[in-house]
Write a structure and sequence with these properties.
Elements (H helix, E strand, L loop, with lengths): L2 H17 L4 H11 L5 E2 H8 L3 H13 L3 E4 L8 E4 L3 H33 L6 H25 L6 H17 L2
Antiparallel strand pairs: 1-3, 2-3
Helix pairs in contact: 1-2, 2-4, 5-6, 6-7
Length: about 180
């Protein structure tokens, strides 16, 4: 691999390592595929990156799951070839939907479960706890709606956040 490609591959590996989405090797594989003019075999990836075939294979499968890499057929070859995704809008939609929206919905579920538990015990949560859970739920519901709009290519409704921000700020001020 030439010097520019090596620089890019290492930079993508470093970026991926801190992303908490991809591993360093996945970032390096993506970087190499992205700067490759055509599809690349698994053997070529292992040679270029000086990694074991099993490590590269597992990492490529993960990149395929994230839709960052796709397997392509090359006429006359029995081997699988891979190329990097270039539709970054689609890649970001996938990451937002699968990674961040899932986390946001986990927070919403935790708040709803706590509120449900308080209601089942026949009493309301303490006012402080109820206010905190309500503010958290309102904020994360607005974020969930924003992610949904983003992944559909629609604009975020600024009123949704404007209505939540004073609510959360006022509740934060109350605890002081």
């Amino acid at each position: 691999m030439d010097g520019i490609t090596a620089l890019f591959v290492e930079g993508m590996g470093a970026a991926a390592a801190t992303s908490r989405i991809l591993t360093q090797l996945q970032g390096r594989i993506f970087g190499l595929l992205y700067l490759s003019p055509g599809p690349v075999t698994l053997d070529a990836l292992t040679d270029e990156l000086q990694q074991s075939k099993s490590n590269v294979s597992v990492s490529v499968r993960g990149l395929i799951d994230w839709q960052l890499v796709r397997r392509v057929r090359v006429p006359g070859s029995r081997k699988d070839h891979y190329e990097a995704a270039t539709d970054f809008w689609r890649v970001l939609q996938e990451i937002m939907e699968r990674r961040f929206r899932w986390n946001v919905r986990q927070v919403l579920a935790a708040a709803a479960e706590a509120e449900r538990a308080a209601a089942e015990r026949g009493r309301e949560a303490r006012p402080f706890v109820a206010a905190r859970l309500g503010a958290l739920r309102a904020f994360f519901a607005a974020i969930d709606a924003g992610i949904g709009a983003f992944t559909q290519g629609k604009p975020l409704d600024p009123e949704a956040l404007r209505n939540v921000l004073p609510l959360t700020a006022a509740r934060a001020h109350q605890r002081r």
